[in-house]
Write a structure and sequence with these properties.
single chain; 318 residues; alpha/beta; Uracil-DNA Glycosylase, subunit E; six-stranded mixed beta sheet; 43% helix; binds uracil
Length: 318
């Protein structure tokens, strides 16, 4: 195929992906149909706007979207790149055995992000080879008081070589009963968010800051977090995701060693634990405040785009 044809084809595929993700997201917002011309302009690559000289109608939904997105500095981790072919995208979602080695740890050298707490120590005391090593070390854990009321330790699940890791706060009742993370109502929303990004749940890794359910779903206490978070940091070291998505304040504060409110730090990439960490709203919060889903979707698009661009540049250097 001619290079230009290939380029057009891959851009068309990317457009289709974006439109499908957008439709999934609109469905998530409760839309039952889409007016002609109401597509979000930011989902349409520039070339399409150029190709179609007729201006697009921007619906009320679009305006609301634009209003709700305050101008922010570009995330440091955003990478520009060529548009991939669909098959490259599909291949790129799975971590290659030949994936590029990470840069040496930077987080440990950084000053505290918000001047409140130092970043947590990211050097694991033990050189884990696999997630099973970590699970074995945890055993039938009694290190903190949460063990008294738990049914199951919810270790986490997903692809051990995932490019994206989602970290929540701690198991709820359903998770405690099943021994799996995010299987309740918040989990169903998380599944839809993952799918809207173009991934399947099995392709990512999902875990929590604390692995035992706090009684009555209360917020985990500082000593419980301090006991459990080293295992989370070790999981990140083993999985080596491109991005860790911190779901909600507890996950963001644990991963970034800050007390900053989630509303202040969401939607930005931070360097921590040898990877990028992007905080966003917790799905349980989004169930209570659906009007904030738009912001969360903006955050998740950044994650998706970052992961795809990394996958492209890895393919290019292979
Ligand atoms: N909320 C969380 O933070 N984690 C879960 O696993 C489920 C709900």
């Amino acid at each position: 195929m001619h290079a230009t044809d290939r380029d057009l084809r891959s851009r068309a595929i990317e457009l289709i992906r974006d439109v499908r993700a957008y439709l999934r997201y609109l469905a998530e917002l409760g839309a039952t149909h889409v007016e002609e011309g109401s597509a979000s302009r930011d989902l349409l690559p520039e070339w399409r706007e150029r190709a179609h000289s007729s201006s697009m109608t921007v619906g009320d939904e679009e305006n609301a979207w634009e209003r709700s997105t305050s101008p922010r500095e570009a995330p440091e981790a955003t990478v520009e790149g060529e548009t991939p072919k669909e098959e490259e995208l599909m291949a790129g979602k799975r971590r290659s055995v030949h994936s590029v080695e990470r840069q040496p740890e930077r987080a440990a050298e950084q000053p505290a992000l918000f001047g409140d707490l130092p970043l947590p120590s990211t050097a694991p005391p033990i050189a884990d080879r696999t997630l099973d090593d970590i699970r074995a070390d945890i055993g039938e854990c009694t290190r903190c008081k949460l063990h008294r009321s738990r049914t199951t330790i919810v270790f986490g699940e997903g692809d051990p070589r995932a490019r994206i890791m989602f970290v929540g706060e701690g198991p709820g009742a359903e998770e405690d009963a099943q021994g799996r993370p995010f299987v309740g109502r918040a989990g169903q929303l998380l599944n839809r968010m993952i799918e809207a990004m173009g991934f399947r749940r099995e392709e990512v890794y999902i875990t929590n800051v604390v692995m035992c359910r706090p009684p009555s779903n209360r917020t985990p206490e500082p000593d419980e977090i301090a006991t459990c978070e080293p295992f989370l940091f070790r999981k990140i070291r083993v999985i080596k995701p491109d991005v860790v998505v911190a779901l909600g304040a507890i996950a963001a504060q644990s991963l970034l060693g800050t007390k900053a409110p989630i509303g202040q730090i969401r939607g930005r990439f931070f360097d921590a634990h040898g990877t990028k960490v992007l905080p966003t709203f917790h799905p349980a919060f989004l169930l209570r405040a659906p009007e904030r889903k738009r912001e969360a979707w903006e955050d998740l698009k950044k994650v998706r785009d970052y992961v795809l661009s990394r996958s492209r540049s890895e393919d290019a250097t292979r």
